[in-house]
Specification:
310 residues; alpha/beta; Rossmann fold; 2 domains; 5-stranded parallel beta sheet; 4-stranded parallel beta sheet; 9 helices; 15% strand; binds aspartic acid; EC 2.1.3.2; amino acid binding
């Protein structure tokens, strides 16, 4: 695998391979010195044009745990503010010879443009409302750990599906792993092509108890040009996942950041059913596996035990 641009490019075997490798990397995080030399001498450039807490910190930790050098480039405060284009920014930063560029940007399809300007491996860390493939991989990983397998699991994704890159990647990844996916939300926030995605669609949470996994999404205000719901209060009244709607055997997920009191009530966020912090923790090992996959998997060494050339 040279790049990770979309879940579309991965089949079930590739998703399983990444999850298996992530599982093998878990043990590194338990050590006093949380590092292996797998990517020693490699440079990973994090190029972030949009806000990020979890994704950027976990890509940085992932690269460091594999001994890569990391450069963090945040667009605000850079020459991007002076009008430098994506192409010129990538050409400029490529002069530093990064081996991988992890990019988050507001432009759907932006990461797919980069291979024409740089030899670095490209990892999509979220492009507009298009895709967020590493989020989907860490979600699959988290569920696989809990459920053993996603085959036959009923996953409901709830909320602002229309503007959500998490949903677009998650739907594909969950289905490839054998889950049955249902999308639920106000009709204005469901994509028109929903039925062609091989999912069920609901506009109420009346049957939410059918779900094994309840995956709630944040309202993506930054991608809305008009009001899609009358008010957040009215949205919450009908679509909030709260203790009244969430059954005791159901697992709760959310990609973060959570708007407490809107898509989720505070009590369910903090309940034992919530996998939200497990998702964050999984982000590090899964991103280690992705960086390893695009930079080193073609070499046959065991990443944990074999010394790498200096
Ligand atoms: N953190 C996720 C993303 O970047 C979800 C969100 O922002 O709501 O898409």
């Amino acid at each position: 695998m040279n790049h990770l641009l979309s879940i579309e490019d991965l089949d079930r075997a590739a998703i399983e391979r990444i999850c298996d490798r992530a599982a093998a990397f878990e043990e590194i995080g338990e050590r006093d010195i949380k590092k292996v030399p797998a990517l020693r001498g490699r440079t990973v450039l994090n190029l972030f044009y949009e806000a990020s807490t979890r994704t950027r910190s976990s890509f940085e930790l992932a690269a460091k745990r594999l001994s890569a050098d990391v450069v963090n480039f945040v667009a605000s405060g850079s020459s991007v503010d002076k009008g430098e284009s994506l192409k010129d920014t990538v050409l400029t930063l490529s002069a530093h010879r990064p081996d991988a560029i992890v990019i988050r940007c507001p432009w759907a399809g932006g990461p797919a443009l980069l291979p024409q300007w740089t030899d670095a491996a490209i990892v999509n860390a979220g492009d507009g409302k298009h895709e967020h493939p590493t989020q989907a991989l860490l979600d699959v990983y988290t569920l696989r750990r809990r459920l053993g397998s996603l085959d036959g699991a009923k996953v409901w994704i709830i909320g602002d599906i229309l503007h959500s890159r998490v949903a677009r990647s998650g739907i594909q990844a969950f289905r490839k792993m054998g889950a049955e996916v249902t999308l639920a939300g106000p009709p204005t926030l469901l994509p028109r092509e929903a039925e062609s995605l091989g999912v069920e669609v609901r506009t109420t949470l009346d049957d939410l108890r059918e779900a094994d996994v309840v995956y709630a999404l944040r309202m993506q205000h930054e991608r809305m040009e008009q009001a899609f719901v009358p008010s957040l209060r009215e949205y919450a009244a009908v679509y909030q996942v709260n203790a009244r709607r969430l059954g005791p055997r159901q697992l709760l997920m959310h990609p973060g950041p959570v708007n407490r009191g809107v898509e989720l009530s505070g009590d369910v966020v903090d309940s034992p059913q919530s996998l939200i912090l497990e998702q964050v923790a999984a982000g590090v090992v899964v991103r280690m596996a992705v960086l390893y996959e695009v930079l080193a998997a073609s070499r046959s060494e065991d990443p944990i035990t074999e010394p790498q050339p200096a």
